[in-house]
Amino acid sequence: MTRSGAYRRLSWLLALIPLSTCCCTSGGENTLRNIKVFLKEQRIEVNAQVAVESGGPIEYLLCTTTGKTYESVLKADCDPIQFHAALLSLGLEPGKDGVKVHRDTTQPTGSPVDIQLRWRGPDGKVVTARSEDFLFCTITKTTMQHEGWVFTGSRFEKDFYDPKKQVFGANIEGSLIAVIHDPWAIIDNRDPHGHIYTAYTVNEKVVPKLDTPVTVIISRTTRK
User: Fold this and answer.
1) What DSSP string describes 27-71?
2) Per-residue pLDDT of the chain (224 residues; tens, 9 = 90+)
């Protein structure tokens, strides 16, 4: 199946989700599991929790609770297809001819997005940070560069148990937002070290304690 054919299939799957779950008022009310869509503000918010508070290597900023939570800073109990649908509802377009294999040296492509993180500190006050600041680069000895993230869109793969069937890649391992390039992830990053497995660890100076609730705010941006 071609990529365009796969996305036509995905569009058909998304059509099974009630319109009210993909679109909502500026108040953000909908029935998506742990995902709110703010169409007027051109953003979505995902309810997540801290999955890893120290150490590494780190491969994901966010994965599902059934994904590689031991290699992801954050985890969320959400459906990858609904996550994808929420991003599509903002008018974002998935990438083409970008990352094809895990740890690909090719840069990912797709509509650019910004990702902010919000949580409450020990004193109860709301704290907001750029998502890149949750990650420490072992090569540059600083936080991840603010190169931004892109909506790569994941892809379809042959079902391991039935090669005649196709499965949505992000559903296989719960890959939502990749730090290390992953063709199955729905969002990937454009950092120059995204192909190096050991490049990133948790930034222990910023990341809150394990299981702390964190809101992942993904916004459409005009940044190139």
Assistant:
1) T----STTEEEETTTTEEEEEEEES--S-----EEEEETTS-GGG
2) 444 444 444 443 443 444 344 445 445 445 589 999 999 999 999 999 999 999 989 999 999 999 999 999 999 999 999 999 999 999 999 988 777 777 777 889 999 999 999 999 999 999 999 999 999 999 999 999 888 899 999 988 877 777 788 888 899 889 999 999 999 999 999 888 989 999 999 999 999 999 999 999 999 997 76
Q: What are phi and psi of 77, to 5 degrees?
A: -85, 80
Compute and round to an integer the Cα radius of gyration of the chain: 17
Gap between the terminal Cα atoms of the chain: 30
Question: How far apart, in whole angstroms, are the C-alpha atoms of residue 39 and residue 23?
Answer: 7
pLDDT tens digits, residue range 88-128?
A: 999 999 988 777 777 777 889 999 999 999 999 999 999 99
Of residues 142, 174, 186, the one with CA closest to residue 74: 174
What's the CA gap between 114 and 184, in Å, rounded? 20
Element (H, E) at 149: strand 149-151
Cβ-in-10-Å burial (0-12, 13-18, 19+) of 116 comes to middle
| Residue reference for tokens 């939502």 | 176
Coil, strand or helix at 22: helix
Q: Where are the domains of the chain?
A: 3-220
Instruction: Report d(CA 6, CA 29) in Å as an integer.
Output: 30
